[in-house]
Amino acid sequence: QVQLVESGGGLVQPGGSLRLSCAASGNIFSIHVMGWYRQAPGKQRDLVAAITSSGTTNYADSVKGRFTISRENYKNTVYLQMNSLKPEDTAVYYCNAIKMGTDYWGKGTLVTVSS
Questions:
Q1: Helix and strand numbers, DSSP H then E, in the chain
Q2: Short-list 6, 39, 37, CA closest to 20
Q3: pLDDT in tens, 9-21
Q4: Which residues contact 77 (CB under 8 A, 6 or more apart)?
Q5: What is the distance between the alpha carbons of residues 31 and 33, in angstroms, rounded to a whole number?
Q6: Stretch 48-57: mean pLDDT, rounded?
Q7: Which of 44, 103, 108, 114 has its CA 20 to 30 A from that of 96?
Q8: Taken in order 81, 48, 2, 10, is the CA torsion positive or negative?
Q9: Calpha distance 79→29 (Å, rounded)
Q10: pLDDT of residue 110
Q11: CA-to-CA distance for 77 and 70, rounded, in angstroms?
Q12: Which of 83, 87, 76, 29 is nearest to 59 (CA)?
């Protein structure tokens, strides 16, 4: 089992920044991919960004150039730096880890972008 705990969500004004963190614990050996998904009210959960254990990254088109995903393997932690936030970025952000073909999820952290 892998446990994921997110932190760093909150209320921010348009144009502002937030940094999300996700700490993994438990049987973390061989976690290949960690990433962030988000789900806005009434919408499906979509990929925001992902990073492999070797550092390869992938971003949704809507966040390219604004969000940066990073990973500290020795801390078993993944981060999402979000800059130039827009109201449409408002959602619950979920941490995800893939280990041997199995998806693990955190409980989510709410990000609200509003003036």
A1: 0, 11
A2: 6
A3: 999 999 999 999 9
A4: 21, 22, 23, 24, 71
A5: 6
A6: 93
A7: 114
A8: positive
A9: 19
A10: 97
A11: 9
A12: 83
